[in-house]
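Field log, afternoon session.

UNIT: design team B
ACTIVITY: writing a sequence onto a fixed backbone
BACKBONE:
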C-alpha cells in the first residue's frame, strides 16, 4: 500500500541519515516531494550538488541532465542515482553532438572565430563539454540574462543551445532586436533567416520544451477577455509570443516566490508544468490561481519518478545492488565542468 511504501522510504532515509541526500526539482510529484531534503530550480539544485560533500548517495528526483550535472559537480566518489533511467528531457535530447559539430563547422565558416557557444543546463553532458571546450558556459532560466550578457562581452556572437525560446526571450530582454537572431535548424542543417547573416548576433538552436510550447497566445487572450484582472506569470521556456503578452516570467523558483509575495485575493494564471502549478494552488488558498492552459499535460518524463520508483532506488542502496547510477565519462566531465564552473562563478 501507499502507506507501507511511505513508511519504508522514511525508514531507509532515517537509517542512512546524512549519508543520503534527496534533492527534488519543483516539477516532481507531491508523493516524491514530501521526502525531499531540498527542492529547487535547476540552478539551486546544481549549487546544492556542488557544495554537498557529506552524502555518499544522492538520489536525484528530477531528470537525467540534472543527475548528470549533480554527478559532475560532486566531483568525488559520491554516487548519483536516478530512480528511473527513462526520466530524460525531450528538450535536452534535441541537441546531439553530431548535429552540433555539423552546425559548428558551418558557423565557423560563416562567422569565423566570432561565436561563443552557450548551453541551457537542459542539455547532455556532451553538449556542456562542447561549450566548455570552446570557452562557453552553461546557463539556467534564473541566470540566463546575466550569462548571455557575459557571453556577449566575450565574443561578438552567441550560439544558444538547445532552447530557442529561452534564448530568444532573454536576448529580447537584453534589448537585442529579433532581426539580429537567426535560428539554426539541426534536422536540415540550415539557418532559418531572411536577411544578411552578417547582421546576426545570436544563433538560436531550434529546440523547445513541448510542455511549455503547449501554452499559446490564444490561452493568454482567453484569460485577458474573461478575467481581465488576472496576472499572467509564465516560464521563459514558453514561446516569445506568449512571454511578450504575459505580465511576468521567470524560473520555477521565481514563479514560486512571486506567488508567495503576492497579496491575498490576487489572481494568477501560471504557465508552467502542472505538478508545480497544482502545488502552488494548494499552498495558496487565499489567492485565485489557475493554469494558463487548463488542458495541459504534465512533463511525462519528470512524472516517471514516482513513489514506487523512489522506494526501489532507496532499496537498491540498502541492499547495495543494481544501482541506477549516473556516471559521466571523465573526459566529458572535465570539459563540461569548465562550462558549469564558469556559470557558478558568475552567479
Ligand atoms: P527551472 O526549474 O530551472 O526554472 O527549469 C525548468 C525546467 O524545465 C527544468 O527542466
Ligand atoms: Fe525538459 Fe520541458 Fe520536462 Fe523541463 S518541462 S524536463 S524542459 S521536457
Amino acid at each position: 500500500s501507499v502507506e507501507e511504501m511511505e513508511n519504508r522510504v522514511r525508514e531507509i532515509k532515517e537509517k542512512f541519515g546524512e549519508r543520503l541526500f534527496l534533492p527534488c526539482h519543483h516539477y516532481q510529484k507531491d508523493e516524491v516531494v514530501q521526502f525531499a531534503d531540498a527542492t529547487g530550480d535547476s540552478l539551486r539544485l546544481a549549487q546544492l550538488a556542488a557544495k554537498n560533500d557529506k552524502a555518499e548517495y544522492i538520489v536525484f528526483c528530477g531528470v537525467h541532465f540534472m543527475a548528470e550535472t549533480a554527478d559532475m559537480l560532486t566531483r568525488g566518489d559520491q554516487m548519483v542515482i536516478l530512480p528511473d533511467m527513462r526520466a530524460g528531457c525531450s528538450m535536452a535530447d534535441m541537441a546531439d553532438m553530431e548535429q552540433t559539430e555539423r552546425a559548428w563547422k558551418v558557423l565557423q565558416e560563416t562567422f569565423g572565430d566570432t561565436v561563443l557557444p552557450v548551453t541551457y543546463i537542459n542539455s547532455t553532458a556532451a553538449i556542456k563539454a562542447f561549450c566548455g571546450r570552446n570557452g562557453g558556459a552553461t546557463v539556467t532560466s534564473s541566470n540566463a540574462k546575466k550569462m548571455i550578457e557575459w557571453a556577449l562581452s566575450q565574443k561578438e556572437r552567441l550560439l544558444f543551445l538547445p532552447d530557442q525560446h529561452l534564448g530568444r526571450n532573454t536576448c529580447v530582454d537584453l534589448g537585442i532586436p529579433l532581426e539580429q537572431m537567426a535560428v539554426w535548424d539541426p534536422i536540415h542543417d540550415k539557418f532559418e533567416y531572411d536577411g544578411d547573416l552578417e547582421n546576426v548576433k545570436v544563433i538560436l538552436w531550434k529546440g523547445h520544451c513541448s510542455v511549455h510550447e503547449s501554452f499559446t497566445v490564444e490561452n493568454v487572450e482567453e484569460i485577458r477577455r474573461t478575467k481581465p484582472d488576472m496576472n499572467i506569470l509564465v516560464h521563459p521556456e514558453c514561446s516569445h509570443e506568449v512571454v511578450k503578452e504575459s505580465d511576468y516570467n521567470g524560473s520555477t523558483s521565481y514563479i514560486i516566490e512571486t506567488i508567495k509575495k503576492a497579496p491575498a485575493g490576487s489572481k494568477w494564471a501560471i504557465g508552467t508544468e502542472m505538478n508545480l502549478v497544482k502545488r502552488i494552488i494548494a499552498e495558496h488558498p487565499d489567492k485565485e490561481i489557475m493554469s494558463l492552459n487548463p488542458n495541459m499535460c504534465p512533463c511525462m518524463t519528470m512524472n516517471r519518478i514516482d513513489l514506487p520508483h523512489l522506494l526501489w532506488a532507496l532499496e537498491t542502496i540498502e541492499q547495495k545492488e543494481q544501482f541506477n547510477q549516473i556516471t559521466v565519462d571523465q573526459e566529458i566531465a572535465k570539459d563540461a565542468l569548465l562550462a558549469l564552473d564558469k556559470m557558478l562563478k558568475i552567479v
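LOG NOTE: The CA atoms of residues 61 and 306 lie 9 Å apart.
NEXT ACTIVITY: expression trials, pending approval
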